[in-house]
Amino acid sequence: MEGGNIDGNTRRGRTSKRKEMLEKKKVVDGLIKAASALRDPLASFPAFHHYNQQGFCLRLETGRGDKLSRPLKQYMQKLLKLNMERHYGTEWPTEEKVKHREMVASDARYIFVYEVPTSSRNDEMGLIPMNGNVGEVVGFVHYRFILEEELPVLYVYELQLEQHVQGKGLGKFLMQLLELIARKSCMAAIMLTVQKANLSAMLFYTNKMHYCVSAISPSRVEPMVGAEKNYEILCKTFDEQAKSRLE
């Protein structure tokens, strides 16, 4: 009798635990779905619609991987190769194909940076945009809302800027925007992958943006194996649960 009661309690406990896990998964899946469905993530952050600093007049727009025009895709592919080929070395031909596939995925989300032509400048008004002139793309961010360690996270796949707009505070501006989007969408963290050979990017994320090497990065999971890997996974967490799992 007593043994039967223990077994029954155990079964009820396991059923309750499974139900709780399913409910948590349902909530997390809902957060990711809602974040991905947002039509214009920039709408909530008007201060980030433009970047008028360091002598630049830039405008930000959002996009989706399955809505990219052919000229825009070609531009992005060229910029990726220009910025990243040297960091991947002999692995680039294979990695390039992967990145091209990722680029057009339906869950890929983008922020595009346009350099707006200006008509004049004075000390009081600064750069004045020319009305009706869209300007040229000078960079982009590719990100997605995904599940990582059973937590909803915003994963930054690419942050690519043309050389003449690098080192001007724009990268920090874009990452600050992504953090705001992640928090508003109730994500638990922001994550990204950086090539070890890309020292400037590694310093930017760890020193300027205060990201840390994640607990799921190869160098943390298995140091001996991780030493042979050419990348690190970085993260910035927003709550204690994410901190305990990802940091």
From TrEMBL:
Residue ranges of the TM segments: none
Catalyzed reactions per annotation: N-terminal L-seryl-[histone H4] + acetyl-CoA = N-terminal N(alpha)-acetyl-L-seryl-[histone H4] + CoA + H(+); N-terminal L-seryl-[histone H2A] + acetyl-CoA = N-terminal N(alpha)-acetyl-L-seryl-[histone H2A] + CoA + H(+)
Enzyme Commission designation: 2.3.1.257
Keywords: Acyltransferase, Cytoplasm, Nucleus, Transferase
Domain of life assignment: Eukaryota
Region feature (Disordered): 1-20
GO cellular component, as recorded: cytoplasm; nucleus
Compartments where located: Cytoplasm; Nucleus
Gene3D superfamilies on file: 3.40.630.30
Main location: cytoplasm
PROSITE patterns named in the record: GNAT
GO molecular-function terms, A-Z: histone H2A acetyltransferase activity; histone H4 acetyltransferase activity; protein N-terminal-serine acetyltransferase activity
Cross-referenced InterPro entries: Acyl_CoA_acyltransferase, GNAT_dom, NAA40
N-acetyltransferase domain boundaries: 84-232
Signal sequence extent: none
Family that this chain belongs to: Belongs to the acetyltransferase family. NAA40 subfamily.
Name of the featured protein: N-alpha-acetyltransferase 40
Organism: Opuntia streptacantha (Prickly pear cactus)
Lineage: Eukaryota, Viridiplantae, Streptophyta, Embryophyta, Tracheophyta
